[in-house]
Amino acid sequence: MRITRSLAALVAGVFLSVGFAAGAGPAHAAPLAPVAKVEVDRYLGKWWQLATVPSFFGVTCARDTSATYTYVDAKTIGVDNQCTGPTGMRGGVVGRATVVDPQTNAQLSVRFPQTPGSINPGSAPNYIVAYLEDGPNPTGPYQYAIVGDPTRGSGFLLSRDKVVPNSELRRLTKEIEKVGYNPCTFLVSPTTGGRSDYSPLCTV
Question: Residue ranges of the Lipocalin/cytosolic fatty-acid binding domain (predicted)?
């Protein structure tokens, strides 16, 4: 792989430290599988979190959670996670994502060195791109992504658009199920101009 600008994402993570949520996937499910290939140029840029498996690191976010990925070098992606807290203040954390699977570029090790309590996974992947969907331009930026850790203890549904119709959420819920998650463990992420609730995704 020419890792020169072809790599896998997410680290969408929007607050992508491995979060814990019991029952995120089937009890005996195989590890979360990566997509066949991620093209870094199409994954970079800003993503909005539409839904997530709740985690300790997301409790400070009330709405408008986003992740922006930037190219650093052949093996490294910059991660800038932002959200609006309960008081209306915008804040976030910055980190780095390292590609640990050069065959697919879809498995990364993400860390946030300045964040108390965050875990340094070393060379183990804690950010796996399990689903990607093209946008209007099939060679342009990806439109949707589903990412998580190998055990499905964390999970994120990401979109280039801040607000999407409920019909799209319902369609994407089926994709979440296909990659082995229980969609009822995902909660809707509130966005300005969009949904304001934290309902389980399976009830949308």
Answer: 38-187
Give, in order, the Cα–Cα distances in Å from 43 to each of 58, 79, 191: 22, 12, 21
Whole-angstrom Cα distance, residue 107 to residue 147? 10
Tell how far CA 89 is from the center of its chain: 22
Where would I find the H helices in the chain? 40-43, 166-178
Structure tokens at 59: 């409790």
Please, what are the domains in the chain? 40-203 (2.40.128.20)
Mapped onto helix, strand or coil, the DSSP state of residue 49 is strand
pTM: 0.84
**What is the amino acid identity at position 3?**
I
pLDDT digits (tens, 9 = 90+) for 9-21: 333 333 333 333 3
What is the C-alpha radius of gyration for the chain, rounded to an integer number of angstroms? 15
102-134 b/e (C-beta count within 10 Å ≥ 16 → b): eebbbbbbbbbeebeebeebeeebbbbbbbbee
Task: Measure Cα distances from 88 to 62, 135, 162 in Å.
Answer: 8, 31, 17
